[in-house]
């Protein structure tokens, strides 16, 4: 087994609680306890991995402002950090960057 295969396996690891939650959602797509587990997991993932969960969530509960807010906050957070990083490299006025971040 090459080092790449081990890396791929580690990257694809899915916690048992997430597998159980997915199984529950197959039986009942409105199971809020199962969704809570998936939301917590998504909140600990990079947005590119979590986005699929958030999209499923808002598709299942399209009128839930709470769930849309979670999704939007996850997207905005990554954009905010990207902006800060970009400005820290390219902005001539570092004080301006600190003001934006506060």
From TrEMBL:
Keywords: Nucleus, Repeat. GO terms for molecular function: mRNA binding. It comes from the Eukaryota. InterPro entries: HAT (IPR003107), Rna14-like (IPR045243), Suf (IPR008847), TPR-like_helical_dom_sf (IPR011990). GO terms for biological process: mRNA 3'-end processing. Its main location: nucleus. This is Cleavage stimulation factor subunit 3. It comes from Pongo abelii (Sumatran orangutan). Residues 17-76 form the Suppressor of forked domain. SUPFAM superfamilies: TPR-like.
């Amino acid at each position: 087994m090459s080092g790449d295969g081990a890396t791929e396996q580690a990257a694809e690891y899915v916690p048992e609680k997430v597998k159980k939650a997915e199984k529950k959602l197959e039986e009942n797509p409105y199971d809020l306890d199962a969704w809570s587990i998936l939301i917590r997991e998504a909140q600990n993932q990079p947005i590119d991995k979590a986005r699929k969960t958030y999209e499923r969530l808002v598709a299942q509960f399209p009128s839930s402002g709470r769930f849309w807010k979670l999704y939007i906050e996850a997207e905005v957070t990554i954009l905010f950090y990207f902006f800060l990083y970009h400005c820290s490299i390219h902005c001539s006025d570092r004080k301006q960057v600190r003001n934006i971040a506060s």
